[in-house]
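Run: sequence + zinc ion -> complex structure.
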Amino acid sequence: MQFKDIDGQTVTANLLTLMADEGRVAHAQMLAGAPVGMALAVAYAQYLCCTHRQHFEGDGLRADSCGECPECRKFAELSHPDLSFVFPAASVGPDASPSAEHQARFRQFLLESGQRGSLDDWYAALGMENKQGQIFVPDATFVENRLALKSYEGGYKMVVIWMPERMRPEAANKLLKTLEEPLGRALLLLVSADPSHLLPTIISRVQTINVRGTENIVRHDEFSELFVNWMRLLFKLNMRALSDTVDTMAGLGREQLKQFLLYTLGQVENCLMTNMAGAGQPLGTGDAKFDQAFPGMVTVRNAELITEAINNTTYAIERNAHAKIALMDLSFKLSKYIKNR
Ligand SMILES: [Zn+2]
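>> structure
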């Protein structure tokens, strides 16, 4: 899978290849939010392994794997020995890993569906239409063993966990222990359709990249003014004005607030792309001076921290945290990160 074969995900693809080129590959990452996440995960893994990475000029994709080197050829058949998958399935016995058992079948399913199949499609392929699959403790052991092996090709050992929200709690806890160990050249990639069902302890240990359904940031005109005000206040830290702005944000209500934070996240990713690769889209807030100056505030040094802080706040709000307290806390963090860029 190459990024060029995935429609409408240039911003996410550029973020992933930029992190890879900069050598900033976190050992646990999550692609969250859309069915296209699996295709992106495979394209990303392929990019990391490709021995002839291609770089392009212009506004589109900044880079991609070559599709022709021996590593890329193994990815075309999903037969790369350093890449494994974990996925929900029915139990195959108390000590056996369904993911190990159905590994070849799952790869076949991914090839046949162009890495875009749904959970229902997978259950149908396994002939378990009326059952819900899960990810079990032996699957977590399988992950641990795969990541502990030395890589065949001298690069990354990679495990993609598809639908980690289907993990049994004891399997998630076992996985947490794995995430606490030094992993060396290992990469655990979570592809989640609904991260709100993941344990917060898992979320806090992975770097989350939100995959949007479409490439363009939704142009919420009602959000842009609020966004500009908020970001400007992070420089001045005028407490009274900040408190008023945070009140306005909290007053949006939970669902709208989540949308606003998603919009903010999109703008942050866009700033990083504009700043680092010259390939972002215009911020389009309607405030030309802000649009000109703000992208420079997001750098490879602070982007990860900013993204993580916004994601954590979104999850806290999903879990009914006090919105104003969560947003004030987020404001102080963002203020610090932006000033220490
Ligand atoms: Zn290649």
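>> summary
The first helix runs from residue 10 to 21. Residues 221-339 form one domain.
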